[in-house]
Amino acid sequence: MSRFLDYLNDRILLVDGAMGTRVQALDLSIEKDYLGQENCTDILTKSRPDLVREIHMGYFEAGADAVETNTFGASIVTLGEFDLSDETFELNKRSVELAREAAEEFSADGRERFVLGSIGPGTKLPSLGHIDYQPLEDSFALQCDGLVAGGADAFLIETCQDPLQVKAAVNGAKRARAQAGVDIPIIVQVTVETTGALLVGTDIAAAATIVNALDVPVIGLNCATGPQEMSEHIKWLSENWPGMISVLPNAGLPELVDGAPHYPLRPDELAHWHSRFIEEDGVNMIGGCCGTDIPHIQALDAMLRERAGGEHVRPNPVRRKSYWVPSVASLYAQVPYVQENAFLDIGERCNANGSKKFRQFQEAGDWDACVEMGREQVTDGAHTLDICTAFVGRDEIADMTEVVSRMRGGVTVPLVFDSTELNVLETALGLYGGKPIINSINFEDGEEPAAKRLELARRFGAGMIALTIDEKGMAKDTESKVALARRLFEFACTKHGLPPSDLLFDPLTFTIC
Fold first, then answer.
1. Overall pTM surpassing 0.90 (yes/no)
2. What structural domains and CATH numbers belong to the chain?
């Protein structure tokens, strides 16, 4: 475990307040301070390092244990909107250095202080078709390269509105830390709107299921609402999430006062809510988002000192009991593997190999009819939908793209991607924000093809179906099927790290009657 996670496990961590709304409140020159790039807060790292450092120092002086870098919009994709793509690496690296310089100003008291590399969602959501997956992952990877080079203690992927964007950011962060040979933890904070879901419709259970499949140790909420509106979702995480929890609310819901947004939550009110989150929900990391300022962090620091008492300035987290239910998820909702009073029903009719009707729709390019076939199966009780577009004479990748890009938002249950071709599976996974199932692995052609599929499952966060077939063919009796299942388990779970709960065995048997 990293130094940062060790601290988070042992003490409540206080993060800073807002950067963006603080900057917006200042009277800055578009030409001089923003270098002609209006609303590009990230460029202040280059043009006004003194201002960025001063904001960090203000939060440390107020009592914060950690500050976020001025890099919320500093990915290639977002900076490209200001013709600043070439600045990506250096802006991220320098932003970490500025935050570290501020932290060192307060090192005399011996307290640990951290720098969190802020990674915002950008302006393009892949689940809505704004951008393809791979360019987005590449964009986040370069941003994280800069954060690593500057010496960030953790990646804070925040204000997440689309689970597919989360996957791109997490995988970009993993690439950066692997390339540098460092173990920097990843935090994911989702933004739940007043509707009770992320912008694309994902509820907290589905979001947690997807994030958990990516091996992220800390999940939390930030932005959009105040602590009161977050409380129900934090309670769900407290009772279910197996890792650590963060919560960085806005200072209430914004109100329009004299033509400008005003955040009404007082510092003492924010401290009251955070005290509740600590006591009742066992959160590990607190702070503020939009509208929170120096007085809010001072109030949180005072509350934590009072709770800690004695010689420590930070209390221990309240240990909680959670019960994680192994599941898959659509873009909208969680679906447990184990159903009450039923088996997990995989609808098989959206399969070109098994359904003449689906194949006819596919040939005609009637993609809406393909989606309607999926909806009909959901109405009939299917918990997941198997999707296979393999059909002689057609482009399987193109057809899979057409179907998945519509199914992901058109049906409410998770998808099962069914193909013998690795590139088809990778295409489907790169289109899907939910937690799907891959169909399937076996050892018919040895272990290498299975290993490549398992790499995809780990990268994109997917379950896996395993068929009892090896180099000799299909196992035909009970003893050989069980032995092969054990081999598949050892290979998938022990060697390649797939969680045992995400491995589904298909013993390839048929009913007698």
1. yes
2. 3-308 (3.20.20.330), 327-506 (3.20.20.20)
